[in-house]
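User: Sequence recovery, please. Input:
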């Protein structure tokens, strides 16, 4: 047993917003439809390639 740590590849940043003072990005994940895009804080994207 072990904690599965999945890393997903960012395909595109769709939008940017400030939510309760935190900048978030609407991330379209590679291999997933845009309907499954999620709002992520910048800190969650620190490992993303530039």
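Assistant: Recovered sequence (50 residues):
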């Amino acid at each position: 047993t072990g904690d599965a740590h999945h890393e997903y590849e960012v395909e595109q940043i769709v939008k940017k917003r400030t939510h309760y003072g935190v900048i978030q990005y609407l991330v379209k994940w590679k291999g997933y439809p845009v309907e499954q895009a999620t709002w992520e804080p910048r800190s969650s994207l620190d490992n993303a390639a530039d």
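The chain has a mean pLDDT of 87.
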